[in-house]
Amino acid sequence: RATQTALIVFQHMLDDTGKPLGNLRFVAHEGVHERGGENTCDRRRPLRDLKREFPYVDYSFIEAEEDPTWSASRETQSSMIKRAYNFLLWLRDRPEKEVAIAAHCGINFTMLNAIVDCSMDPQLAAWFVTAELRSLRLLWEEPPQEEGKFIDTSNRILG
User: Strand, helix or coil at 57?
Assistant: First the structure.
């Protein structure tokens, strides 16, 4: 569903066949997958189906054919945080300076509450409504280790 939303939002940047114009790229990344497990609506479709339906999306960063976060139980919050954190590290090292992230509200909320410091504009960390767009600028700073902001159920600092 997130891929469909991205293509709808940016349809003005696609030609009549759905191919992105100019240097625009659509890249899928498992790091911004919605919270996995339990809820069928959050399960990613098989990679082969996605590639067939969305031929102009780059799926080279998706390794597994089936959804790796899918199970009978819900993905833990700490797993989701680590996955989103690794995505942001990947994004930091990308050459692009302006990107749009099309993702579901749960992963967006997690990124903006558990990883990104939104203290200068707390409204950025509010829950997302359907099809909501937010614009923000990320500054990449490494916090001192002892300033870990979130802990897991064993009181270990995440990060």
Answer: strand
3-state secondary structure of 157: strand
| Residue pointed to by tokens 């819900």 | 74
How many whole angstroms separate alpha carbon 80 and alpha carbon 101?
A: 16
Token code pair at residue 52: 């067939």
Residue 108, number of CB atoms within 10 A of its CB: 21
Summarize pLDDT for 128-138 with one digit per residue, the tens: 888 788 888 88
Residue 104 scores a pLDDT above 60: yes
Task: Dig out the tokens for 100 from the structure.
Answer: 């749009």
Cβ atoms 150, 158 nearer than 8 A: yes
Claim: this prediction has a pTM higher than 0.85: no
115: Cβ–Cβ under 8 A, 6 or more apart, which residues? 81, 84, 85, 88
> Per DSSP, what are the bridge partners of residue 20?
14
Q: Rounded to 5 degrees, what are φ and ψ at 82? A: -60, -40
CB contact set of 27 (below 8 Å; sequence gap of 6+): 57, 58, 60, 61
Confidence of residue 73 (pLDDT cuts 50, 70, 90): confident
